[in-house]
Amino acid sequence: MPRIGLVDWRRRDDFAPLMLVMCEEKNRLVRSLGEVAKVLVVGWPTDDGKEYIAAVKACLDAIQGDIPANTARAALIRAAEEAGMRVVTGVH
């Protein structure tokens, strides 16, 4: 796969926002690759699971420019579903 180039991981225009419903009283709005990284490393309820590990790798790959941001977003959604979280997405 051709390298996309280093990505500004705080940039929001190439990332469709989503809301993670982490528990009844805690929701997390994710709008950029930087926010994906933060929620996976700091705010995730567990540090294992096949989809979780895949999401961490996809996030790093997207930040490095090896894959598009929407691929990392899709990996985050799968990891959230694996962890039993609801995901609310909007139209980008």
How would you characterize this protein structure?
InterPro entries: DUF982. The model has no long low-confidence stretch (mean pLDDT 83). Strand 1 (18-23) and strand 2 form a beta hairpin. The protein has one domain. It has helices at residues 33-41, 50-63, 69-82; strands spanning 18-23, 26-30, 86-89. Helix 1 (33-41) runs antiparallel to helix 2 and helix 2 packs antiparallel against helix 3. It is an alpha+beta fold and 92 residues long. The chain has three helices and three strands, in the order ββαααβ. Strands 2-1-3 form a three-stranded antiparallel beta sheet, covered by helices on one side.
Please tag this protein with its features.
92 residues; alpha+beta; 16% strand; globular; DUF982 domain-containing protein; DUF982
Helix content: 40-55%
Q: If strands are numbered along the chain, what order do they take across the biggest sheet?
A: 2-1-3
How many helices? The count is 3
Strand content: 15-25%
Protein name: DUF982 domain-containing protein
InterPro entries: DUF982
